[in-house]
Amino acid sequence: MSDILLIAAGLLGLIVAGVHSYMGQVRLIAPAKFTGAVQRGMVQAIWHFSALAWAASALVFLYAAQRLTGEARWLAVTLACLPLAYGLVCNVWITRGKHFGGLLLAVVIALALAGGSGRFG
Fold it and tell me: Which spans in 24-99 are helix H?
């Protein structure tokens, strides 16, 4: 069951990262007015960096489900949750909890921590 929880966290995490990257590009970055190409490039780099970090965390969850056990599994999963937790805190703070992305990040973190703990078989 722990492996299933980690796999679910990994797959959902990849989906969240992909949707975040795509929707941000289409709905926020593309229509925005920038003073120059450098500014647009900086905003794109910063925006997509978070999606890359979340995707990397999701890949750690998938790897941990297949290859890690015990303390190594718990440590890897816990550390991989940090970029997601930062995104969650920022999302809730900036949107005052009115954006569904915070809920999705919380679900990914909960699944990962539950699966990484090894308490579910």
Answer: 37-67, 70-95
